[in-house]
Amino acid sequence: MFEASEDPIEFASALMYHMRRHGDSDYRLHRAVADRHPRFERSTLASWRKGTKSPRTVDSLEVLSSFEQRYRLRSGYFKAKLPHQSRSTSGFELASEVSAAERRRLAWHLPDDFNTLPFAKREEILEWVRRVIISGSTDYRRFQATASKQRYAIRFPAISYGSTLSPRLTAGGDGIESDHASIEDPDLLGGVIDAPPRLSLEMANLVHFKTATLTAVGLQRSGVWGEETTSQKIEHLGLMFGSLAASPQSAVKGYGVPLAQLTFGLLVFPGVWDWYLQWRERRRGFYTKWEEDMLQILLGMVRPETGWMWQHRQLAVNLKPISGLISAAEIRAAQSDWCGACETAFKHATQRQKEIQRVARVHRDPFEPIMCVLEAESPLGEYRKITEEIVKRMPDESRYPRAAAEAVRSFLLLRLGLHLGLRQKNLRQLMVCPRGQFPTSERRLEDMKRGELRWSERDRGWEVLIPAVAFKNANSSFFGSKPFRLILPDLQDLYHYIDAYISRHRRLLLGRSQDPGTLFIKTVKTTSKDAAYNQTTFYEAWKLTIQRYGIFNPYTGRGVIKGLLPHGPHNVRDVLATHILKQTGSYEQASYAIQDTPDMVAQHYGRFLPQDKAALAAKILNRVWEAA
Q1: What φ, ψ does residue 320 adopt, rounded to 5°?
Q2: Using an 8 Å Cβ cutoff, are 340 and 264 in contact?
Q3: Quick check: 87 and 101 in contact, CB under 8 A?
Q4: Helices 227-245 and 270-284, interaxial angle, to 10°?
Q5: What is the distance between the alpha carbons of residues 557 and 452, in angstroms, rounded to a whole number?
Q6: Stated pTM of the model
Q7: CB atoms within 10 A of CB 314
Q8: Residue 178 CA from chain centroid, whole number
Q9: Which pLDDT score, from 0 to 100, does residue 148 have?
Q10: Strands 452-456, 461-466: parallel, antiparallel or unpaired by DSSP?
């Protein structure tokens, strides 16, 4: 009826505009597409036009495609105007054996025309999505997925440190090798064995010895364990005892030591350690830093004068021979000269540690999931694209308030991570003080070992204040006993989203649940008990954001970074440190971004600088030629 001179932004307005252009009523347009889409109802078209509903299913998107053909519009014209761009499509035809949970995960990453594609193409897409987006296709992840199915760890459920430590022993053969630890599925805890009473008491004694403010009278101690270190040591030792107790006939192929015979006294015998080290080597195919770290635990426990085992000779009382592992003669020798046995264990562990250092290989490269970002000329600029994709696909808050709140939370997760460079724990436990309220005192934050986001009237900006004691490396020269303080820059609408999140979105996510006081909270549902994130759920929230907005999907066009793999919040520190190294060549400046020392940066990130050193030097030298 007339040429198109407008391009309405909203889907409902655009649909009405083009219907009016072509003189279509609901009845006429429905009749025009009814032959191709017999299940499409005229009432559905009316709800689309009025804006009360919007297309979401595969069939509905096919109807939109027919509209575009009728009105001679470009393919995807109407879909690009839908109010919820990040919403997953429903109605995909998948095999019956695909569980409902996996269907929900896959739906985000399948193309709209999936049902019409040939069977071979659909299988190709499913394999790619499962391998790259859902699981992440690294050698270590494949090994971890297999190892985590073999449950063998010993759990110490009765042991806690302070009010926040909960030993998180997981089934599987790897555990944590660094701060880049992968998060295990908590459901696997069901197959883990509880420690027998005597072993639990010995572990409790060790934890108290290494965490008490004052050493017990008559004992000597060298160094103390913090909360995270304690949790990690409990997990590592639980995995070792679990391997000893596992059946030789099982997939784990343990040693089959009866639970009643498990005791820390076993760890004084070199034969036990040699079996465990070789057992781990057989599972992986090579030695890693894990074995070196385990030997370091032993060295600390049998160290002359200050070792916990050295000062507890009663550990030898309940030892019994184990065929092929410990003989009766070895037990009698240890019982008669416990300190001598500890000295022998110390020398043996020192020697084995040197031998493993020589042949140890890196199984889990923490940089592998984000290597495509780190190799970019501007790693920070590359990673920033994910935050821009979140904003681009942010749903209409008036129609989808909860989805909009979750999108803003994902945006702030990444933005604050990129500005602050914090470890997962510090970012997860960051408290929030809304504008107009009194911020938490610094002394109170020190007691809680947490930081806070608050409004600074003096600087007219959002301030992050974190006491030094809250950091893993609290004694580092970086802090000098001073708190970490940073005024966030009001760039790319950061303050707009912070204000909106604190004033509206956070309250919506919280629902009727008790407010934990942290800035980032889970979406509270009917099955939720706690709105606070823990280590696992926070990792999963970050990973989910990367899966939906970061990883480029060639089949849907979603995502912005080709070659990216799922990863957790710790990798953002790698992005910041590598970016500054590439731009300045300075380990010192890079250390400022992640609250650490230049030596640590050189040790972990030096591999990304050599290829850029020549370019940095040439840039300075070339100025002479440019001036001429």
Answers
A1: -135, 150
A2: no
A3: no
A4: 90
A5: 38
A6: 0.74
A7: 9
A8: 13
A9: 55
A10: antiparallel
In this structure, are residues 92 and 103 in contact, taking their beta carbons and an 8 Å threshold? yes
In this prediction, residue 385 carries a pLDDT of 96
Six token digits for residue 272: 């036990």
- Give every CB contact of residue 409 below 8 A, 6+ residues apart in sequence: 501, 505, 506, 509, 520, 541
Report angle CA 551, 557, 562 to the nearest 5 degrees.
Answer: 35
Average pLDDT, stretch 291-298? Answer: 91
CATH superfamily, region 368-614: Intergrase catalytic core (1.10.443.10)
SS3 485: strand
Question: Given phi > 0 = left and psi -120 to 50 = alpha, else beta, which region is 411?
Answer: alpha
Residue 628 has pLDDT above 60, yes or no: no
Q: If you ran DSSP here, which 8-state letter would residue 465 be given?
A: E
d(CA 625, CA 522): 57
Closest CA to 556 of 117, 119, 103: 117
Q: What is the pLDDT of residue 163?
A: 34
The predicted-structure confidence for 471-491, as pLDDT tens digits, reads as follows 887 777 777 778 999 999 999
Residue with tokens 């054996």: 97
Distance between CA 542 and CA 591 in Å, rounded? 23
Answer whether 238's CB lies under 8 Å from 244's CB: no
Residue 581 is predicted with a pLDDT of: 87
Least confident of 33-42, 273-282, 322-331: 33-42
Separation between Cα atoms, residue 538 and residue 423, nearest integer Å: 12
pLDDT digits (tens, 9 = 90+) for 385-436: 999 999 999 988 888 899 999 999 999 999 999 999 999 999 999 999 999 8
Decide if 44 contacts 359 (C-beta within 8 A). no
Q: Which residue has the tokens 């690294």?
A: 138
Separation of alpha carbons 315 and 310, rounded Å: 10
Has residue 166 got a pLDDT over 50? no
The neighbour count for residue 227, using CB atoms within 10 Å, is 16
Each residue of 85-110: pLDDT tens digit? 767 777 788 877 778 778 888 888 89
- Which pLDDT score, from 0 to 100, does residue 554 have? 94
| Token code pair at residue 275 | 């079996």
Locate tokens 């790319």: which residue?
492
Amino acid at 612: D
Spatial CB neighbours of 192, under 8 Å, sequence gap ≥ 6: 151, 152, 153, 154, 155, 169, 170, 171, 242
- As given in the structure block, the two tokens for residue 406 are 């979750």
CA–chain centroid gap for 112, Å, is 29
* pLDDT band at 340; cut points 50, 70, 90: very high
The alpha carbon of residue 579 and the mean position of all alpha carbons in its chain are separated, in whole angstroms, by 21
In the block, tokens 């005192």 appear at 441
Contact predicate 148/170, CB 8 Å: yes
Tell me the β-bridge partners of 465: 452, 485
